[in-house]
Give the backbone structure.
Amino acid sequence: GVYDRKNPVRLDVLYGSTVYNPHGIATGGGNTATSARPGPDMHQGFGRTTGDRVLPVNDVTDLELFVFDSISLDAYEEWTAADLVVIGSGDLDITLSWTDYPAATYCSQCLIHDLDLNVIVTTPAGRVFQAYPNWGAAEEGTSPYAQQADTKNNIEKVALTTGTSALPLGSTVQISVAADGLAASDSQKFSLVATGKLGINTASPTPAPSLSPTEDPWVENLQVSCAVIVGGVTASQFE
């Protein structure tokens, strides 16, 4: 399985976002026959990663992959992506990750830099709702779909199903990331990955330029040149 830590070692946060982004891979609790549910799970972490549920492999998957890498936020600043539009039915997964600073031993609030993933959905009928990270700030034993912000983890994920009455085709999905107070430095970098049957909403306003780096953070429709499964984690090389 794939396990995250409250006080993570330094890692490539873009790779982290991609690994954690599959929809419902974790197989559940100690007795998978009776307690299976989407991850994260206290026994198996984020579960196994299956390559064709993470990356748009030619002639294998029809999902789209949108990557926002090395975006930097100052304290109390917000970054907003271009609106995406739902063009098909299936799983929609949006994962935010960042490398946090080490917290004190025996800390009660161990997250030093708190970023918030915000996903606002607007249906063609005009219904607007916010999709919160699935596990949010839910305590152990409560629903993993608690409707509240996540203030404990440096991995946040929203998982939805498109093509339903609640999220029909033509709905727009607005993604933003907001920084709370930053105690250890003046800024915090993050990476975000979105997969699903999505397109760019050409009617949406031009997105604000990225704060840092200055180059365009979009990397759209990545093509896989090599994919190797190592210990249940997909290590991929892109061209």
